[in-house]
């Protein structure tokens, strides 16, 4: 991406309850992209506080609010869970993150593909998308770009796991300026 060398790595803590194989491909994908060191932690949090009885889903905004104060000042936290997520006025979300913030969450619940390898790829896309938000990026109109908004599984499948040149440029700028 033509970035200047950066002395300090971004510390990203991945809170996970999902399969190790998926986490491994996510780590391999995001470490070079975000100039990051990923630490994997077991996500032992009881999410009952975020559960909606009627919807039978978990409120991703409530989970982010919980994660925020427990995330170290020099790190970013992203939870990867199997629970189905929603936010207000939306049927479901693949994930949510604070734009320019420190916390994010991705759910694998709706990434139900037939082939196992595909799930890793789709997880990589969604984690990259939410981290892109954390590092200040907003949605992108390019439907191949990982920052393109996905309303359904077909749209996640269509986009790539990478940033378009515009987003890559902004990411480089935002990542260097914010830290
Ligand atoms: Zn988004
Ligand atoms: Zn883009």
Question: Would you give an account of this structure?
Answer:
With 179 residues, the chain is α/β, with parallel strands linked by helices. The chain has one domain: 3-Layer(aba) Sandwich (Collagenase (Catalytic Domain)), CATH 3.40.390.10. The strands form two sheets. It has a five-stranded mixed sheet, sandwiched between helices. A three-stranded mixed sheet has the order 3-4-6. The model has no long low-confidence stretch (mean pLDDT 89). The structure holds zinc ion (ZN) (2 copies).
Give the termini distance in whole angstroms. Answer: 18 Å
| pLDDT < 50 runs, ≥5 residues | none
Q: How much helix, percentage-wise, in residues?
A: 25-40%
> What profile does the largest beta sheet have?
5 strands, mixed
CATH topology: Collagenase (Catalytic Domain)
Average the pLDDT over all residues and give the rounded result.
Answer: 89
Structural descriptors:
single chain, globular, Collagenase (Catalytic Domain), 36% helix, alpha/beta, 5 helices, binds zinc ion, five-stranded mixed beta sheet, three-stranded mixed beta sheet, 179 residues
State the gist of this model.
The protein is α/β, with parallel strands linked by helices and 179 residues long.
Describe how the helices and strands are arranged:
Layout: E1 10-16, H1 20-33, E2 36-42, E3 51-52, E4 57-59, H2 60-70, E5 75-81, E6 85-86, E7 95-97, E8 103-107, H3 116-134, H4 153-158, H5 165-178
Parallel strand pairs: 1-2, 1-5, 4-6, 5-8
Antiparallel strand pairs: 3-4, 7-8
Helix pairs in contact: 1-3
One zinc ion is lined by residues 129, 133, 139, 149.
């Amino acid at each position: 991406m033509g970035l200047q060398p950066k002395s300090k790595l971004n510390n990203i803590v991945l809170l996970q309850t999902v399969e190790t194989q998926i986490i491994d491909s996510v780590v391999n994908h995001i470490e070079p992209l975000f100039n990051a060191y990923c630490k994997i932690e077991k996500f032992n949090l009881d999410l009952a506080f975020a559960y909606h009885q009627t919807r039978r889903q978990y409120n991703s905004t409530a989970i982010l609010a919980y994660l925020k104060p427990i995330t170290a000042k020099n790190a970013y936290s992203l939870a990867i869970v199997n629970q189905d997520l929603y936010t207000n006025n939306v049927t479901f979300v693949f994930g949510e993150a604070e734009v320019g913030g420190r916390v994010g969450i991705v759910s694998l619940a709706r990434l139900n593909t037939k082939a196992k390898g595909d799930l890793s790829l789709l997880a990589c896309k969604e984690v990259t998308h939410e981290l892109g938000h954390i590092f200040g990026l907003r949605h992108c109109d390019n439907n191949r770009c990982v920052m393109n908004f996905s309303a359904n599984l077909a749209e996640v499948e269509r986009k790539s796991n990478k940033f378009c040149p515009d987003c890559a440029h902004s990411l480089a700028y935002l990542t260097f300026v914010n830290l």
